[in-house]
Amino acid sequence: KVNKPKLREQLKKRSTNLGKALSLSYINPIQMQRSAFQYMYDGQGNTILDAYNNIMLAGHCHPKVVRAGRKVMTRLNTNTRYVYPEILAYSETLLSKFPQSLDKVFFVNSGSAATDLAIRMALAYSKKKKIMVLEHGYHGNTRIGIDISHYKYSQGNNLGKQDYIVEAPMPKVFGSGLKDDGSAGKHFAQETMARIDGAKGKIAAFIAEPIMGCGGQVPLAKGYLKEVYPKIHEQGGICISDEVQVGFGRLGDFFWGYEMHEVVPDMVILGKPMGNGHPIGAVVTTSEISESFAQGPEFFSSFGGNPVSCAIGHAVLEVIEEEKLQEHAKKVGDYLQSLLVELQQEFLEIANIRGIGLFIGVELLDKKGNPNTMLAHRVKNELRENCILIGTDGPYDNVLKIKPPLSFSEKDADRLVHQLHKICNDLLN
Ligand code: PMP
Questions:
Q1: Which of 70, 310, 315, 416 reaches 20 to 30 Å from 96, CA-CA?
Q2: Ordered domains of the chain (ranges, CATH)
């Protein structure tokens, strides 16, 4: 309460100085002061449970990660035109997480920069012009990023679908009337194959997230990528897996999202959790694709792969290993899903719970089976009033997104679902 006028002042300053296209989370915006692991602390003295930020994989301000960055920052920061040990050690550890075919890495500063570079490389390698994307996919904020992100180009004053884009339907099992036993995957793959055929051998790349984040936490139907990847290869294109949201062990059973679909991509895009909040992104690809890109011109990123970023990225990988965060994500994720499934028995509006590990979506419908955007917003904002952060997304913004820092515990899961239960009781009974 003490800080209320100050918040008003800060909001005014924000609207004076920052572009209107930036948004604020929650009806009641939060002044963030500090954070540690899965907790954040606001200007009013509240401790807030973060069940939303998948970037802080190791936990907010993880001491090992902070120390690693600070240590190198006081000694040296430079770029990839010089030789220094941090980039060599980090690239070796990072590449050890991939199958042998994916043996080259390019470092950049964001998921968007990685996407942009991946598409440039795909065009250069394949000598083709078209890019195949999934409906409701999101891959980045650059011009190319928007071009290949149906989630954005279909909205507002963006340019709409460009001529070089080939859309494929979102292979979403829930609501399709099909089962996730491979039959849904086959069904969606058939439609996608027809569109590949329609593009007459001109597809340079097919890009997809293994579980679509902005699309509403939608795992691609089982078997879908297994059918589509070979078809893209057959006509001379490459397959890109966007692991920006789901990568680095969050899924519990899998370190990378493509593993759950039993495919190996030709290129992987990394970002968000890679630096635990420090801006790092990367493209990991094959020697062959990397070689074709070496024909020039030089690729240079002022900050991509600098020693400080590499030390931070390396520390994140070490923390994942040392604290067994992948196993932890499985254990807590399974537990959280079981609590949500119990909650679902009580409320018809909780129509679908999906995802894996600590990457979970809860789709809300009304009693007639229509997207319940209003309920999703009320739940999100009520949780915020009770000091718990989650998000909403999907084409109708009716999917609750739960993707916390991996330090999130079973006790935190109890607290989240207990509060959800109370809110649903208040709003629905
Ligand atoms: N790919 C996916 C799947 C994403 O969710 C995002 C960011 N939301 C990006 C790429 C772009 O990453 P960045 O915001 O770091 O540029």
A1: 70
A2: 4-58+324-428 (3.90.1150.10), 63-322 (3.40.640.10)
Task: Give dist(CA 169, CA 196) in Å, integer.
Answer: 12
Angle between helices 63-73 and 307-322 (to 10 degrees): 160
Q: Are strands 238-242 and 203-208 parallel, antiparallel or unpaired?
A: parallel
What is the 197 CA–ligand 1 centroid distance (Å)? 29
Q: Is the CB of 275 under 6 A from ligand 1?
A: no
The ipTM value here is 0.99
Given pLDDT bands bounded at 50, 70 and 90, which one contains residue 5? Answer: low
- Residue whose token pair is 């679909």: 261
Q: What is the mean pLDDT of residues 396-424?
A: 98
361 DSSP β-pair partners: 354, 401
Rounded to an integer, the average pLDDT of 364-384 is 98
Testing ligand 1's pocket by substitution, the residue of 245, 268, 280, 393 carrying the most ligand atoms inside 8 A of its CB is 245
CA–centroid distance, 189 to ligand 1, in Å, is 25
Distance between Cα 21 and ligand 1 center (Å): 17
With a cut of 80, say whether residue 340 has pLDDT above it: yes
Per-residue confidence band for 4, with pLDDT thresholds at 50, 70 and 90: low
Segment 123-159, tens digit of pLDDT: 999 999 999 999 999 999 999 999 999 999 988 877 7
Query: Cβ(271) to ligand 1 under 6 A?
Result: yes
**Residue 148 contacts residue 163 (beta carbons within 8 Å):** no
Q: Which DSSP helix (H) or strand (E) runs through 8?
A: helix 4-17
Residue nearest atom 12 of ligand 1, based on CA coordinates: 111
Mutate to test the pocket of ligand 1, among 133, 144, 256, 272 (most ligand atoms within 8 A of CB): 272
Q: What proportion of the chain, given as a percentage, has pLDDT over 90? A: 96
pLDDT of residue 154: 86
Listed residue (281, 242, 274, 270) closest to 258, CA to CA: 242
Instruction: Give the SS3 label for residue 355.
Output: strand
